[in-house]
Structure to design on (923 residues):
């Protein structure tokens, strides 16, 4: 049974319907990338899974439980964490405080967890007392991802983690995502940087105009000429 | 002149306590609370009830310390009235503001609701205590100290300043060191992300109202200690409170402290040239100047 | 039927019919509803005891003035989405301006007790014009200062203006005798009830008006105010349906979109704010006709700012008919509860009951916001944009 599965999701904002019945499955420990043109509904899918948007139809099953329409607060406790594309850190808080907020629902001592995040992102250890608002885009992205890892989620949802970053930073972020995945965390990633992302993805879904178009393993999608032409810029 | 500055600081500390509440509620809950002045009134009158009715009934010792108004009654009344006012504010939120927010009401509708709440609360006070001006301790003589530079200060007034200082320091420690305090700062930064992170936004809400209202209540009591209580007293503070909060940059409690002190001093100094009755108008003038010249406030930088 | 009763009947029939016609969703229904309403109210006045008719005139006058205030507020709030908590200020300044324009400077002994900045003794229309100008200018100043800001900042600024104005009028005696009241304001067309009536009237009218004496003036005033309300209403309706009004509606619905269409949003907001304030100023001028002494304490925010907001929200925010209806509905409830409490409540609770009623008004506002924010008469489909 899949760790996380979304079946026939119909969802949108207000009157507007963006997804017309989209399905994806994620196995335990898998790294899944969702690609597609702008407006395809990729971010909308993540938000619907995470409970930020109520689906008009369809189901979301996580670890055997139907979590359709659950609020983010409940979903977070279950083991799915989400990193939005923009405004994904608390700028007036320090790095350390941002991490602490990630583990708000826990009452235990957080030192071990923070250590694990600092292991993954050594740069943040040096800057732990710095206010995040003053940091660069790449550093903030690391804080955002680190924050989401504080709860040891089973699934990490990332909305365009490389957006707006310099190429060196993009490389670094993707490295870190690979590392996180190797630690056993399933990752569902929406990416504009499709080619690069598919290179290290276990599985990929192509969405267009609110519908599933293709899905296959990462390498297979890369080799598919049609997909390369249509969605990967040739 | 120095005396005016000193009085300005004292009076400004009262404004600051109220303004900190306004700015916290504005920053964390995105809510312009037009009932905040009336929360000050509630606190003052609750303390009146404790001091004049309940404590004598319970046999609380009535003597006051030194030449001040403060004895056990007033000292105990401060936290109790603050707690009571916090309950009132939380109730208003649970029954009025939260349901409105769930119906996706605009900020203006919420502000209108707070106006309605202000009226309800104020008239309740009129009903229970009547319109006359009341003293906490009728007939109490409060001698003033003669300080250098021609400043006369009552011990009460010094205590007001000290209490305000202690509260601000406590608030600082709370916001910086406790998990809930950090969560409140986080929610002020980004309420959506706070939800996504799993922060208990309901708890943040309740504590924000509790702290904001509690500070307002203490501000009201301290004002009453130094002056008279009357049902419109809080409404008259609304302009200075908002002026101070905006001057100190909305959402910044330490800015509200600075703003409160500045407004207090400016108001008092204005009496050198203006009829003292115009002091609220002076606060308004400061507000207009801030809105024209630097609408993001003294400590604002980003949008 | 005495002349006074006929006058009151005329006014109430028009008002009553008009209010009832508001419930008609289309032209087909509103005309018959108007007739039915007018007939009902007319018969009521015709058959009621004289004492009741007398008692009714004063609250009716107040209701009409509130209706004008509500319409003014609706121009600012309903048409443009501006949150003005300083209604009492514009109302008051209209009243004071008109008062001082229409009354003479005091002379002799009176000059010792009554101080005012100016007194020109001009006829009433000049008073109205002055009220419009001064309210308008005040609104222009405030608008220019604050309308670029967020809506809650505008609200605070209007509170500030109202407070500052109150302080100035209460403390600067030379301006309008504050805090003492300013007496001796002449009433428009008072000569109609004098004996003999106005010199400029043709003979047959003089005869017809002869039976009226000064106690009947309020009936004349009621007719005048009704006419004023109707005129203002239709003027504002024309404006609302004009291209200018449509721009305002677009701004209210989606400011960003309107701006992108190239409209100078700020300028339109200022214009709407000023127009609404002018209407409020006119209400103020008309108010002075119903009392002959004013003082700033009369213009209490509870009675004039807050109550008008409740009237507008209850009647139907965004909608001029709602504004008028809400004013009459809420004022009727207010007067009704006053009457009941006068009759039923023992003497020692009289003041408490006064505050209880205000408290209930506050609760009513919140109840409306929670359960029926669109008011009793929601905006018609044609007035809403998609």
């Amino acid at each position: 049974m899949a760790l996380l599965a979304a079946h026939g999701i119909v969802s949108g904002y207000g009157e507007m319907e963006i997804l017309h019945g989209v399905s994806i499955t994620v196995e335990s420990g898998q790294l899944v990338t969702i690609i597609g043109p702008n407006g395809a509904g990729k971010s909308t899918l993540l938000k619907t899974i995470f409970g930020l948007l109520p689906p008009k139809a369809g189901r979301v099953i996580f670890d055997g439980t139907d979590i359709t329409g659950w609020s983010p607060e409940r979903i977070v406790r279950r083991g799915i964490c989400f990193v939005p594309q923009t405004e994904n850190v608390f700028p007036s808080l320090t790095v350390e405080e941002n991490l602490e907020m990630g583990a708000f629902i826990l009452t235990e001592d957080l030192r071990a967890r923070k250590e694990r995040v600092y292991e993954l992102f050594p740069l943040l250890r040096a800057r732990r007392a710095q206010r995040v608002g003053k940091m660069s885009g790449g550093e903030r992205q690391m804080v955002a991802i680190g924050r989401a890892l504080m709860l040891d989620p089973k699934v990490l949802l990332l909305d365009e983690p490389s957006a707006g970053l310099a190429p060196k930073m993009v490389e670094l972020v993707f490295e870190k995502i690979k590392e996180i995945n190797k630690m056993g965390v399933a990752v569902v990633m929406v990416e504009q940087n499709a080619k690069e992302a598919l290179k290290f993805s276990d599985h990929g879904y192509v969405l267009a105009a609110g519908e599933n178009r293709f899905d296959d393993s990462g390498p297979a999608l890369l080799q598919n000429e049609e997909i390369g032409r249509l969605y990967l810029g040739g | 002149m120095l005396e005016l500055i000193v009085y300005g600081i004292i009076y400004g500390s009262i404004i600051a306590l109220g303004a900190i509440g306004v700015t916290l509620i504005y920053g964390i809950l995105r809510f312009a609370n037009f009932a905040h002045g009336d929360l000050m009134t509630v606190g003052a009158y609750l303390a009146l009830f404790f001091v004049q009715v309940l404590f004598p009934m319970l046999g609380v010792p009535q003597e006051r310390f030194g030449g001040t108004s403060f004895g056990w009654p007033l000292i105990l009344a401060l936290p109790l009235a603050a707690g009571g006012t916090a309950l009132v504010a939380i109730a208003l939120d649970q029954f009025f503001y939260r349901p409105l927010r769930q119906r996706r009401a605009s900020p203006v509708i919420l502000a209108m609701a707070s106006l309605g709440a202000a009226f309800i609360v104020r008239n309740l006070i009129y009903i229970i205590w009547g319109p006359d001006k009341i003293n906490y301790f009728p007939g109490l003589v409060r001698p003033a100290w003669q300080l250098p530079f021609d400043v006369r200060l009552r011990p009460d007034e010094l205590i007001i300043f000290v209490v305000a200082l202690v509260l601000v320091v406590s608030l600082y420690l709370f916001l910086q060191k406790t998990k809930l305090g950090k969560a409140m700062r986080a929610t002020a930064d980004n309420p959506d992300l706070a939800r996504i992170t799993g922060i208990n936004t309901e708890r943040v809400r309740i504590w924000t109202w509790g702290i904001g209202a509690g500070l307002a209540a203490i501000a009201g009591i301290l004002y009453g200690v130094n002056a008279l209580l009357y049902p419109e007293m809080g409404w008259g503070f609304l302009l200075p409170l908002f002026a101070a909060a905006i001057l100190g940059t909305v959402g910044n409690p330490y800015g509200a402290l600075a703003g409160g002190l500045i407004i207090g001093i400016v108001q008092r100094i204005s009496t050198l040239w203006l009829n003292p009755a115009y002091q609220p108008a002076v606060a308004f003038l400061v507000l207009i100047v801030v809105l024209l010249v630097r609408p993001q406030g003294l400590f604002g930088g980003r949008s | 039927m005495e002349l006074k009763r006929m006058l009151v009947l005329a006014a109430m029939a028009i008002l009553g019919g008009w209010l009832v016609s508001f419930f008609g969703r289309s032209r087909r229904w509103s005309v018959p509803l108007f007739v039915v309403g007018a007939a009902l109210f007319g018969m009521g006045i015709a058959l009621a005891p004289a004492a009741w008719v007398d008692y009714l005139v004063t609250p009716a006058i107040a209701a009409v003035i509130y209706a004008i205030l509500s319409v003014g507020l609706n121009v600012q709030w309903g048409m443009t989405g501006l949150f003005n908590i300083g209604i009492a200020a514009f109302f008051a300044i209209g009243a004071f301006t008109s008062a001082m324009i229409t009354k003479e400077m005091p002379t002799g002994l009176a000059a010792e007790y009554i101080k005012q900045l100016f007194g020109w003794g001009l006829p009433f229309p000049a008073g109205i014009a002055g009220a419009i100008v001064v309210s308008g200018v005040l609104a222009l100043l405030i608008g220019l200062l604050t309308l670029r800001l967020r809506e809650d900042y505008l609200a605070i600024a209007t509170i500030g203006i109202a407070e500052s104005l109150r302080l100035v009028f209460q403390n600067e005696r030379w301006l309008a005798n504050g805090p003492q009241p300013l007496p001796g304001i002449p009433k428009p067309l008072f000569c109609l009830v004098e004996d003999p009536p106005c010199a400029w009237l043709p003979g047959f009218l003089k005869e017809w008006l002869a039976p009226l004496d000064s106690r009947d003036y309020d009936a004349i005033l009621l007719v005048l105010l009704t006419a004023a309300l109707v005129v203002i209403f239709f003027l504002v309706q024309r404006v609302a349906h004009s291209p200018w009004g449509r721009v305002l509606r677009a701004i209210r619905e989606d400011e960003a979109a309107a701006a992108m269409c190239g409209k100078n949003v700020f300028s339109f907001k200022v214009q709407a704010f000023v127009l609404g304030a002018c209407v409020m100023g006119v209400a103020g001028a008309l108010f002075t006709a119903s009392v002959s002494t004013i003082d700033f304490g009369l213009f209490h925010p509870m009675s004039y700012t807050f109550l008008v907001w409740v009237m507008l929200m209850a009647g139907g925010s965004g909608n001029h008919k709602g504004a008028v209806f809400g004013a009459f509905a809420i004022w009727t409830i207010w007067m009704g509860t006053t009457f009941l409490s006068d009759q039923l409540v023992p003497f020692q609770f009289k003041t408490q009951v006064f505050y209880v009623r205000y408290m209930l008004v506050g609760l009513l506002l919140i109840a409306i916001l929670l359960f029926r924010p669109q008011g009793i008469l929601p905006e018609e489909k044609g007035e809403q944009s998609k």
In short: Residues 381-386 of chain C have pLDDT under 50 and may be disordered. Residues 58-302 of chain C form one domain. Chains C and A do not touch (no CB pair under 8 Å). Residues 50-76 of chain C form the longest helix (27 residues).
